[in-house]
Structure formats: C-alpha cells, structure tokens
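Q: Sequence in, structure out?
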Amino acid sequence: MPDSESAPSPAPVPAKMATGARHTTFSILGSDVVVTGNVAASVDLHVDGKIDGDLKCANLVQGEASEIKGAVTAETAKIAGLLDGSIEAKTLIVHATARITGDVIYETITIENGGKVDGKLSHRRHGAGATAKSPPPLEVVENKSASLGL
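A: Exactly. Output:
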C-alpha cells in the first residue's frame, strides 16, 4: 500500500500554481539575489537583484534598485534601474529612474522624463536581420505649435 500512495505525487500541481498561469510563466530574481555569470531564461524575467553577466530572456522587467552589468537581449525590456552594458530589444521602455550606459538597439523605444541613456541609439526595422546595411538615424519627433504654412 505505501508504494501506491507515494506514486501519484500531488507536488507538481502546487508548483505550477506558484509560477503563474498554466501557459504563462515567469521568474523573479529578488532584491537579495546576486548572480555572477550569464543568465538565460526562456520565460519572462523580473529582476530586482544584481546580475554581473549577460542576460537573455523573453521579456524583462528591471526594478528601480536593480543593477545589471552586461549585455541584455529581450523581446520587451522595461528598464528602471542601472544597466551597464548594451541592450537589444524589440520594444524598450526606459523609466524615469533608469540609467543605461551602453549601446541600445531597438524597434520601438520610450524614454520617460528623467531616464538616462549614455550610448549609441540604433533603430532596427521590424524584421530586419543582421544583413541590413545601416539603420536609419534616430528620429526625434517634436510637437511644435508653429504652422508649416500649408
């Protein structure tokens, strides 16, 4: 009898519930976590701690007190802390508390007032690969009240 009771283990059910919805998983590096080395995640990642190494994940959310020292690659990145290294993301949001030192490659970018980026900004066209010649220069759009005389 003891073997039949231990065979169907109920442990996997709580583990799935603890990581989020059935098909939506994410990982969290808490504020007390320090990682030295590269980090790769096939899921979304929320970082409140410190990473000294390259980071590659599906989507990244970086907390205000977080520090990442290395190259970051993600589909979507929301940066609110310190990033000392390059970043490549299709969609990049630089929050007001963010400080990025390094080159930035993006398809769409939002920089909140107060967000700091010290590096080269390069726009990558949607679906463009590494074989594209040169990316177009950064477009700055300003809302001016002056009429164009049309």
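The radius of gyration is 20 Å.
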